[in-house]
Amino acid sequence: MSPAPIVDARAIHKHFGHLHVLRGVDLQVAEKELVFLIGPSGSGKSTLLRCLNRLEEPSAGSVTVDGIDMLDPRTDINKARQRIGMVFQSFNLYPHMTALGNVALALRKVQGLPRADAEAKAQAALERVHLADRADHYPAQLSGGQQQRVAIARAIALEPRVMLFDEPTSALDPELVGGVLAVMRELREDGMTMVVVSHEMGFARAAADRVVFMADGLIVETGPPGEIFANPQHERTRAFISQIE
Ligand code: ADP
Ligand code: MG
């Protein structure tokens, strides 16, 4: 028997008013798996990610993360969210705090660590994203790629069980994308469970265990990157892949 998935989302529906944005999505992510989520703009990828940590409230369905029922009103949602790291297109760093300060703040606020402990952990997290030597830099003194790596450090410092990435490199100049993807690959090699929404198909080929193609609020097709890219089974997938490559 395979172990229980870290992420187990079933029959997820999401309505925004009259818009039916997710129409019954099932997504299971195994421990240490990297699932790569693709699909046309507006297909519901961001909404699905946000339903996993309840930044959006699903209209129907169930979401379990690391055995915790995310939709149960008795669940301490702030505590449950500590298991789920999220990285967005925009880095959302505090401009008046250094890289170290930004990462340490999360540890102090979320885990209640004393300043010295938080800073030691923050420094270790910055090392993992190869920014130990930029710890005392302010966001404005860092490139976009470095800022995004600080945002990744802020998330991994909290030792999440799964990391969600929503277009982490979409706001970056092309020459800065590689450094962020390299850090994500290292995370994966260290055994992090990851769900990644991205247009970086080269990264999917190299690092994804599974590609999930969404359209119109439904999962159309899922499979290993080699199969989805070379031999998509559905016309909709074929059309999307021929556009982006
Ligand atoms: P994707 O990430 O695949 O581009 P999204 O999940 O962002 O798609 O959006 C799916 C659909 O839901 C789009 O039509 C979008 O306009 C709509 N949508 C997303 N968030 C909201 C919201 N907060 N209120 C109303 N509509 C929304
Ligand atoms: Mg999106």
From TrEMBL:
GO terms, molecular function: ABC-type amino acid transporter activity; ATP binding; ATP hydrolysis activity
Q: Where is the ABC transporter domain?
A: 7-241
What membrane topology does the UniProt entry give?
Answer: Peripheral membrane protein
Q: Which domain of life is it from?
A: Bacteria
| Localization per record | Cell membrane
Q: Name one GO cellular component term.
A: plasma membrane
Database matches in InterPro entries: AAA+_ATPase, ABC_ATPase_HisP-typ, ABC_transporter-like_ATP-bd, ABC_transporter-like_CS, MetN_ABC_transporter-like, P-loop_NTPase
Q: Does the keyword Transferase apply?
A: no
Its keywords, alphabetically, are:
Amino-acid transport, ATP-binding, Cell membrane, Membrane, Nucleotide-binding, Transport
Repeat as a keyword? Answer: no
Looking at the UniProt entry, the stretches that span the membrane are none
Question: Which family does the UniProt entry place this protein in?
Answer: Belongs to the ABC transporter superfamily.
PANTHER family in the record: AMINO ACID IMPORT ATP-BINDING PROTEIN, GLUTAMATE_ASPARTATE IMPORT ATP-BINDING PROTEIN GLTL
This one is known as ABC-type polar amino acid transport system ATPase subunit
Source species: Neoroseomonas alkaliterrae
